[in-house]
Backbone:
DNA sequence: AACGCTAGTATACGCTTGTTTACATGTCAA
DNA sequence: TTGACATGTAAACAAGCGTATACTAGCGTT
């Protein structure tokens, strides 16, 4: 057992490459299982590297997680753009994730790692800066932050539930209908003046 | 150090009472920190009981969690009732939780415990039986299950995000307006035929 | 008063965790 | 070729985990 498992030919003794492999393995594993259920030994094995190198190259497990987090794309691209099409874009984003299974690893890691005390400030800051604040910035009218929080809730909640129950049901649903429904949901979240009832 | 911490006078050698204290402590701790971050020693300390009693009375940590789960009230009371008022009732339910802070421990435990492999079937079954299925049963028309899943997502997502970001923003929001907005959200989730756009 | 049963205790077991240490090995300049 | 340094390895570390075991102490029955 040399420690190689996933990886084929690789140039020996390449610091940068090894670091990258560790980072990639960490990203994948954190996304799938969450922070707590991934051990440094799992990461090392998946990267075909030695456990000690994680601490050598990243300092600690949580520092590695932080670097994974920092490297992940945000939903900024979806949020930016004309405010009118925002609900529709958010809906399409969710539907796309459902169908491709390419849900953002950072989101998947997020809701599986909320319990960790050491990670909470990190995750909090990330959610705030990458989702809530930019979303609120695009909204006019009162309660912009509340509405942004609502929309962010929907974005988060889908992940948790989908992973718990499986996404087969949602996948098999009519795609255009689902997008329309989600658009309505996000509109209800974000609209300036909901009709009181 | 006698092991008492939280608990005042208690009748000595009372099996039923000790069991109940352990169950209560477990419910509170699981709800606050999630399954993984609660140790049996924490539970025992909070209950003013000995660690070994957990295994004696419940068999194992996960069996204790299962019993906590089984004892928790579900959202059935909110779901049951006339179908027309369902979105409004769900919205009021969420707003009530925000304002009282009395969010269901089971929900709080849920999204903090999704990562645990041993718990997944348990949680999955719970979500399915206590939320998705009864919700879908109240809906008419096609895609009932998809719509129920959507509503359940919103219910789940709020918890995760709220805990991550704090609920002060939502608390300070106008209560009636928030309810109206959430009603619209749930209507968008549950309505039979969303307008295509 | 002595027994037996049971609630409760103290402690140890085996294992896993993140991290650190001591060492081996490959690479390159001198 | 040799020495220095960077890279990777194996093993050990201390701490924490869930669980099991051997024990003590209280209570009711006889």
Residues:
């Amino acid at each position: 057992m040399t420690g190689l498992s996933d990886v084929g030919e690789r140039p020996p003794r390449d610091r940068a490459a090894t670091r990258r492999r560790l980072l990639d393995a960490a990203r994948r594993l954190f996304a799938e299982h969450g922070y707590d259920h991934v051990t440094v030994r799992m990461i090392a094995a998946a990267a075909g590297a030695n456990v000690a190198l994680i601490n050598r190259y990243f300092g600690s497990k949580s520092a590695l997680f932080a670097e994974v987090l920092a490297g992940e794309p945000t939903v900024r691209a979806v949020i930016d753009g004309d405010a009118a099409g925002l609900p529709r874009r958010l809906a399409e984003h969710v539907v796309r994730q459902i169908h491709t299974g390419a849900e953002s690893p950072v989101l998947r890691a997020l809701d599986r790692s909320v319990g960790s005390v050491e990670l909470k400030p990190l995750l909090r800051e990330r959610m705030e800066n990458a989702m809530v604040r930019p979303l609120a910035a695009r909204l006019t009218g009162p309660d912009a932050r509340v509405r942004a929080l609502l929309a962010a809730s929907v974005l988060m909640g889908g992940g948790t539930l989908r992973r718990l129950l499986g996404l087969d049901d949602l996948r098999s649903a009519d795609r255009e209908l689902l997008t329309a429904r989600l658009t309505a949901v996000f509109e209800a979240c974000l609209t300036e003046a909901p009709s009181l009832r």
